[in-house]
């Protein structure tokens, strides 16, 4: 059982539209807070989109996700898991980026996550664009390369953009492999689709042993079969889960900058996470939620619904390992 | 054949955007009108959302549904049914609620439906939040408890909210069972999903014999199989159909206050109604359509498309029983 | 100088879109917090709209106002006042209403403000619909009736609605006068306009000595002249300031439930507040901001810009009285 | 006093969001209704925009105006006029246009208004694009040419478009002068602005004695002075009032197809109508309200607020002449 | 290989939000341009919606489609086809319609496409409402009747509207069959659904041998099976492909004037086009995209994603036939 | 008279919603085009917002401004100026920025404008955020410092952000003064308002002789008086005009990232430009138009209306100097 300090406010007591909105209505425990050391899973915002090559907006993601997360209740509808009573969860606040300096921002993010890792907290990140994953991995994989289950419509494995720019939201995992942060043979990318510049990213994947599962294969085989393979690929080792909201069909998740039509629906969007149960997840992110492209907030609500599923999976593993 | 007085205006004669918008472009026959006694199916608005615990808006539902309903034509595309020429349908207007007094509003609604029932009219209600169903059932079930097919992502079987408040849109069917308005063994709830406060509602269902069909079971078994069971549960007896628009996935029906992701799509939303054919439906409602959360009106158009399906099913039964 | 604990986060350090959004980026000091006793001006949300007779939504006001308030910086552009460094300001959180019980909600609100008053904190409230002002006044005026400067397009002086309902957002100041919470001869209402039911509210004002300034008079005389009279009316005594956002023309403030065209513009909306300098303000509110009718948030940004002006006026008075 | 049959429903009895929406909540009295002959002022929709050369949408105007008009109450805030109790007003429904045939539509509209004129009813039209005014004038001016006060940012006096097309919303008053429906020396156009194709329209005005008041003159002289001249121009004769919503600045009235920036605000938009008091108005229209460009409905609410002012002016004249 | 002149600008060089937006960032080659004769596939806008009987807007379609098309990259994700490097594609600009004259507009459109056909260019049209297809077919089928694969929720085979109007977006293919432009036995219509006026259109189809595939059959049989039949129906002869965006479920494509719920999802929307590979397509259109009903542009992005699929299929056939 | 090649397409010939949208429907003459040398005034897009510290979006500005500009006609309504027939104007396309590298982007922009200046073209820029002005000034002021009339609610004179970042949209004119691109004694900033971080920017202005006109002074003195002083400040020398759309009140121009309430209305927004007539304007920009915050495009339409006024002023001067 988790500490009562870490229990979220219930909507049966305080209406869900009331109160200062923290993630999942959890306590706000910034680094330095006296309960920081007791946190098991830390929800963190990375309000940053300087790596975006097309339509910006994910810098506003954490705030809209916090807002939407006040609609999430305490218990999982099928497993019965009550994650916030099982492990200590808290809102650790946002990493402060420098919107006008990419390198400075990455340094700040890595420093923040170094502290998280040192404290033994598993980070559940709310992005930010997908470049956010790189400075996070620099902290989480500082000891050894990680495996990764990556939900996305894009590989994000390009070499560079605009004549040599190495850090954009289309390149983080190319950099992560080059820097030894990911073990490419333990990486699987699921949901790939949409028109392509060329095959440079896929060639890199093939050359390094990254498994690509295109949307056609996903729809043909189904969630269960695809995810069984995904679990096998990452195996028992330490694994990162990166969930780009553009994995989901843009009708279900319009609030994102680089949509690609023909993706999974919202039911599949949840099911793929449930299938991660049992993995050794050392960190997860939900990225590319871009509020300006979905003022109604439906994308953010889907995002936090997925985050809740991720937290349930992580909490179950933590509980089982005690 | 219905009386020509009750035939709706055709879009081939008067464009669909023209005219004072009544439900389905039917005649407006308020209680007291000299054709009131001839109505078979009465379309009624209940513009009321005082039971809403989260995001309000369904009080504006009836007006947006009327507007959207002018897009509905005369004939069903597969069955060929022309309901408005088969039975006498009319727009009976709205029940006037008291937005600042829940008990007074319920009294007004029950009184209105008492008159409907006494006149032998089958009501097709456009809500209004889900608490609306309770005062309606108080009129329709005044003689004997009813069965119910209930489409929703929530059970609405909670005991109370906010420290003892008994009448909210999360409690109507708990009250209805307690008051003997529903026979719980003839009640089936379909499409349940989303995070939960606790299991208090499900425990009540289990203790009383209400059949709950979660969305996982719905997706696994399919519409046909699930609906066959639903028909069996309610059997030949008098049955109420309550259709909360949040049964449908919020991407297809964003205009609602308490969305839960991962629901049925719009095709399934229609199919489940077609499967009700043959039941003895004594009343139906379409509730929780909340225009402020869908200015484009797509939710309302789906809502009236479902209402048309319900009317076809009811008209077929009436015609068959003559 | 205020305590550094109470200084808001600067946008030059942490971008304004980052962080858990509290009012003005001030510390969150709920009742019970160990710095509660040190607060001079407390910003409080009242997320409640059960008194709304027309279009609901103000229950979502405090959250959107908090979000918009992160755009407010530290210093007033003309007076040079830096209020958050002059007096101790804090976000005291929201009062938890009961959305399905008006009487219970009013009891909760009055209890919360009783605590505020007892602690010597001046409340700056973010509503909520205008009925919110009544339970607040019940606490603030518990010792003696207050004067009031009231910006609004409506008098909110009606006797009752819907056949006798006494508590709606159209009746709070009728009740407040009846209950002896306001001294009607020290009350001025500014900006009145829009079609009327009848003259029952104006008759009450005339009979009790409340000064009504219609929009025609406001436009003809100008801000300076009108506000000089307003200051004279309330005089040196303890005064409440109630600012209904529908005072402002709905083009400038569309996010509200009962708009009336032809009102002041956003420049005048600020100037009228600056003219309150020197008054003994014992509490103020900004009510009727309704996010569902302005998804872009422009209304909320105007609302917090006005709140900042109010805080500057209150801080100057507090500082002057030390 | 008007007949109680013609009194609108009060928002104090039935909430304003409830009920089948007719104009101003007046009774729906279509031609043929047994009270048709008793109507003094008839509110009529012309849902038609086939004359639009740029962005379509006004065909949806009447419905959105009806919806917004349920927010209008019974009494004028400054004059105290209660128009619906002074003269008999009713919603006469919409004229059914043929959206795919301009000539056929104009024939239908003129036929409808011939009936209105023959019944001695003064029409208050809700358009529709500005071409609507032409077939209306063909009925109203069938006996003698009319004067006209015309609020607009455009003259609508062009000869033709697209190589000779004579009937568009840019040509109605050129046609009306040519057909002898308007006496050009009794026509004044107020609010003209925006970039121009050329001076062909202004040359026609100059050659025929039509008075053009550009926005610069309007802002420099003020409402009172300009309107005094306008009243003098039309004099005591029968006068038509045509109010294009694009007269108002597009920030105040975004829902229109051909906006021009720099126009009057919403207060001036009402004041110019009040200044028409005493004129012999034989018909009026409110045109070019285009809902697709203002989903929030603020433009429509301004539109019906202006319609209410027009009705008050017309009712005062009718009452005075009895 | 295509000529480098015809290669689109890459988003890796110039960000996708930059530049004057032409279709797919292709060169703008209007008739008369010196490279006009070299074009294989011409992308053409028909900004026209005068045939619309309900909600207008498709006249704005081409511009929004051009804007969205800058998000399309060079290569197909599964086939690897790089169409713009395979054949010469260009943006040929828009046909200038006369928005206030249907017959004149049809004459202009047919004249434009006569030039296209004479130049041996295969047109990929972006509409415009569905009446656009008729004047296009008059040019393309001037020598011999064509087969047609028609994706739509409506047959568009009605005889007339509003008492005899022959040219609306509900009648183009009735006219095309009557005029000998289509061989009805080589026409298949896929996706039909929604409420109906009557069976007049279906009777015409049955009498002439047009194959209708209702949505129920589509969902039951699946894309592959249905499309195999479609290919068989049109066979090896010259074939037109007409794609009404309302074929797709309105949740995926809200930006259209006459939605019908329960349609295909976005994945199926693409798959049906891929299944056209090998056909002798002499022209294709994407019609009824209506920006006013989808300001976010998601519908347009789906539209250009489908256009890209169509271009790939056409390019493969052209390449194979060389 | 300008060359017919440079005349824009008229809306009387081709409807304004038709055609590939270039600025003002002018010919697209990119550098290298054979008519490039003949251009007098070049309209250029700078789709770039990497300097934005708060809400991004201006990178999408040029495209939305092009779209809106197709609504602009040929002639000024009061002066009668037909600028496109007076001097040669053309759309020179966009400068391609590098969204993920600020320094690289500035280099690209300066290089582009070096070419413009060398060709003797006066640039009318559509931004982009306000940092855009700095690389433009580096080209235009390469020979000698310029004077500047600057409309804005902010000074943009801050030293740095986020602990030392020198290039943001809050610093361009500090840099420009430091780099000798602007003569501070010939710089006037008009419209300043909104809460402030501190007075560091105003101190810099005071120390360097930059004239600041706060909004209070602007409203008190009026457009004519203020602009007379502005003309005097810049005098006869070469002058740059920088127009930040947030100069205008955010109700009139919501589509911007850092709004400040209480600004000028849209009429004043035009009048201040007319008052620039006679100045030696060597370049002008319209910046900070951010489409994601105004999907309706009203801000962009105001932006191009202002651009048209600027072009008229510049064309008059060019014509006068010939």
Automatic annotation (TrEMBL), chains A, B, C, D, E, F:
Domain of life the protein comes from: Bacteria
GO BP term (any one): putrescine biosynthetic process from arginine, via agmatine
One Pfam family it belongs to: Arginase
CC cofactor note: Binds 2 manganese ions per subunit.
Entry keywords, A to Z: Hydrolase, Manganese, Metal-binding
UniProt GO molecular function: agmatinase activity; metal ion binding
Gene3D superfamilies the UniProt entry points to: Ureohydrolase domain
InterPro entries, alphabetized: Agmatinase-rel, Ureohydrolase, Ureohydrolase_dom_sf, Ureohydrolase_Mn_BS
Coiled coil location: none
Cofactors demanded by this protein: Mn(2+)
Binding site for Mn(2+): 130, 152, 154, 156, 244, 246
CDD domains to which the protein is assigned, alphabetical: Agmatinase_PAH
The family this protein is said to belong to: Belongs to the arginase family. Agmatinase subfamily.
Protein name per its UniProtKB record: Guanidinopropionase
Organism: Roseovarius litoreus
């Amino acid at each position: 059982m988790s500490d009562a300090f870490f229990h979220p406010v219930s909507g049966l007591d305080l209406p869900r539209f009331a109160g200062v909105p923290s993630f999942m209505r959890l306590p706000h425990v910034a680094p330095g807070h006296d309960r920081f050391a007791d946190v098991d899973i830390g929800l963190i915002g990375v309000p940053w989109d300087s790596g975006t090559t097309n339509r910006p907006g994910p810098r506003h993601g954490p705030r809209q996700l916090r807002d939407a997360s006040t609609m999430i209740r305490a218990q999982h509808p099928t497993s019965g898991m009550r994650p916030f009573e099982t492990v200590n969860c808290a809102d650790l606040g946002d990493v402060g980026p420098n919107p006008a300096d990419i390198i400075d921002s990455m340094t700040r993010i890595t420093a923040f996550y170094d502290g998280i890792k040192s404290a033994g907290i598993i980070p559940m990140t709310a992005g930010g664009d997908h470049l956010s994953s790189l400075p996070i991995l620099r902290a989480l994989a500082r000891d050894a390369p990680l495996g990764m289950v990556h939900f996305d419509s894009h590989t994000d494995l390009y070499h560079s953009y605009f004549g040599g720019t190495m850090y954009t939201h289309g390149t983080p995992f190319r950099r992560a492999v080059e820097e030894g942060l990911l073990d490419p043979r333990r990486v699987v990318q699921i949901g790939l689709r949409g028109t392509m510049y060329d095959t440079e990213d896929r060639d890199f994947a093939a050359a390094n042993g990254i498994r690509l599962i295109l949307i056609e294969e996903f729809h043909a085989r189904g969630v269960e079969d695809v995810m069984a393979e995904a679990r096998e690929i990452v195996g028992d080792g330490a694994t990162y889960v990166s969930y780009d909201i553009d994995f989901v069909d843009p009708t279900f998740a319009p609030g994102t900058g680089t949509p690609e039509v023909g993706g999974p629906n919202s039911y599949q969007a949840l099911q793929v996470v449930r299938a991660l149960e049992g993995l050794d997840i050392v960190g997860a992110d939900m990225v590319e939620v871009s509020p300006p492209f979905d003022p109604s907030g439906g994308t953010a609500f889907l995002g936090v619904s997925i985050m809740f599923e991720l937290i349930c999976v992580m909490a179950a593993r933590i509980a089982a390992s005690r």
